[in-house]
Amino acid sequence: MSFLVELNRVTKSYKTGNSEFYALKEVSLSVLPGEMVAVIGASGSGKSTLMNIIGFLDRCTSGQYLFSQQDVSQFNEVELAHIRNQKIGFVFQSFFLLPRLTALQNVMLPLFYRETAPDRAKETALAMLEKVGMAHFAGRRPNELSGGQQQRVAIARALVGNPDIILADEPTGALDSKTGQDVMDLFLRLHQEEKRTLILITHDSRISQLCGRIILLKDGCIVL
Ligand SMILES: Nc1ncnc2c1ncn2[C@@H]1O[C@H](COP(=O)(O)OP(=O)(O)OP(=O)(O)O)[C@@H](O)[C@H]1O
Ligand SMILES: [Mg+2]
Questions:
Q1: What is the whole-number distance in angstroms between the Cα of residue 99 and the centre of ligand 1?
Q2: 199: which strand partners?
Q3: Across residues 107-124, what is the average pLDDT?
């Protein structure tokens, strides 16, 4: 099987005054389709930087990034936006649902950007809400939902375009432990039953233990 994500000596640096700060230092990482990977490490160790590069939200300073064997290091912004929309599902700690839209409309949004026909988009989005146990809240706005419910809607939105990989940055960070466990159960189900590829950042060792593989970052380097 060939790798879905392949980073070769990827470095991300920032200029601070006349010195250079390295958020990632020559990181090499390969992820196979169907893997569930936890990324752990202290605050500031480079976890989000790594995730943002994998998800095309950010670019590396040097090194090579192959996604499905395609060298994306040279892609322009339009190409990156396209591959991001088609191939990546994001879940963030603070959900990032649009407050004026209902749960259903939020989940439909990625399909809207793909110019899916409205009827088809609605049907697909409802099926995703059903999958995360939120179909009966389809008409509610985010402020009418609990944190765990909002995160489940956000996961439905991440899944709706059938992405190749789901990237979750501290998806349970804003949730209490019971709600966080429910969200993790959902990720585990997606991994086990649907063979979804998942990379998730977490501070919670109980959560990382549930993943097939753990990557530990320290000062921008993978040390485990
Ligand atoms: N735009 C930027 N300019 C300069 N330094 C940055 C920038 N973005 C991130 N950094 C630095 O890069 C390092 C890694 O940041 P990153 O957000 O990846 O950490 P993290 O491991 O996700 O931390 P946390 O657990 O707190 O979310 C940090 O030291 C941060 O200050
Ligand atoms: Mg972070």
A1: 27
A2: 37, 167
A3: 94
C-alpha dist (Å) from residue 156 to 23, 31, 109, 173, 218: 31, 23, 11, 18, 32
Ligand 1 centroid to 49 CA: how many Å? 6
Ligand 2 mean position, distance from CA 43 (Å): 7
Which residue range forms the structural domain that includes residue 24? 5-222
More confident residue, 176 or 220: 220
pLDDT at 73: 85
Q: What angle do CA 63, 69, 71 make, to 5 degrees?
A: 40
pLDDT score for 204: 84
Q: For residue 14, which atom of ligand 1 is closest to its CA?
A: 4
CATH number of the domain at 198, please.
Answer: 3.40.50.300
Q: What is the pLDDT averaged over residues 43-65?
A: 96
Q: Which of 10, 45, 208 to mutate to test the pocket of ligand 1 (most atoms within 8 A of CB)?
A: 45
CB of residue 44 inside a 6 A radius of ligand 1: yes
